Amino acid sequence: MKTSTTSTTYEVILKTAYRLFAEHGFDKASMAIIAKEIGISKPALYYHFKSKEAIIDVLFDEICKSVTFANFFSIKQYSKDNFEEKLIADGLSIIQSQTEDEHYSRIMHQYQALGYRNPKYMQKLIESLDGFTTGFHELLRHGVSIGAIKDGDTLAHAQMLTMIIDGVDNFMTYGFQYRYDKIWAKTVKAIVRGE
User: Fold this and answer.
1) Which alpha helices (H) appear in 81-149, and where do they start and end?
2) Which residue in 15, 22, 65 sits closest to 38, CA to CA?
3) Which of 65, 134, 162, 177 is surrounded by the most beta carbons within 10 Å?
4) Where in this chain does the record put each HTH tetR-type domain (predicted)?
5) Rounded to whole angstroms, how far apart are CA atoms 150 and 144?
6) pLDDT at 1 exceeding the cut of 80
7) What is the pLDDT of residue 3?
8) What pTM, to 2 d.p., does this model score?
9) What is the pLDDT of residues 63-108, one digit of tens each?
10) Is residue 35 a contact partner of residue 119, using CB atoms and an 8 Å limit?
11) Contacts 24+ apart (CB under 8 A), 72-81
């Protein structure tokens, strides 16, 4: 989670909580620990957030906004000449962002675990993945319409791309050193080339 160089106290709280939740989990990272880490009093922390649950909620909304399909893929930028190359590059940018943020995978697993207990988190996670499936489906249909890819089962291919993006995140969390870039590129090439 990135903040500007002139971060407000509110942003510093979110950034610090993001790291502490990833490192220690939601249960162990208390409001007192967050306040101490930032160097503010607990009342000052409560001025910005009425509870730890409020921080968890706001963080989740911010994370979900930052990982939408549209933040990584712009259908308007895809042409017949660049389709395969661009789809590979845009997918790799997601993988790269997951690699660069050492806390992302761990905090997302916290939210997944929370989703099993609280349906509102599970629903938001499902909506996020559905957004990728819908986005990939539109992108692949665009590819068919401009002659960049062969007509095929674009929905199944969109679901496959979504599963790979989600799977990469999960496997990174467990520490697998797979060749994610090659897996993504091979999948895209197989879809685009109709292999």
Assistant:
1) 83-100, 104-117, 119-145
2) 15
3) 162
4) 7-67
5) 6
6) no
7) 44
8) 0.86
9) 999 989 999 999 999 999 999 999 999 999 998 888 888 898 889 8
10) no
11) 73/135, 73/136, 73/139, 75/138, 75/139, 75/142, 78/139, 78/142, 78/143, 78/146, 78/148, 79/146, 79/148, 80/146, 80/147, 80/148
The domain limits of the chain are 9-56, 68-193
140 contacts 83 by C-beta, under 8 angstroms: no
Residue type, 111: Y
Amino acid, res. 191: I
Structure tokens at 98: 């997951």
Please give the CATH superfamily to which domain 68-193 belongs: Tetracycline Repressor, domain 2 (1.10.357.10)
Residue 140 has pLDDT above 90, yes or no: yes
Which CATH number is correct for 9-56, 1.10.10.60, 3.30.930.10, 3.40.605.10, 1.10.10.10? Answer: 1.10.10.60
